[in-house]
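Recap from last week: sequence in, structure out.
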Amino acid sequence: MLFLSSFVRLKAAGINSLALFNQAPSVISMFVREKSTYKMKTHKAAAARWIKRGSGGFKHGPVGVNHGNTGWSASGRSRYHRGGFAKGPGEGNHVKRLKRLLPYAGYK
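Predicted structure tokens:
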């Protein structure tokens, strides 16, 4: 309706509406309102912790490596302090939530 009413206003002003479409795009944009596009926000805390994989899943880095590591054997530390993956369907499923938190997650 907005588009039609702009043609009526142009005709009343004595401007040939068909001649406008032969002009540069900047002339058209003065009379036609474009629809705004809304962007989703990225959750920055999740973006710092999770990386998207090529298969579509998500991977996080190692946890528990900042302090309290004395007394662990080297093999125990390497086993315990490794990164993990977001689980698939079922209990502990984070994939659906991560897709919502990270709408523009690229591959790093």
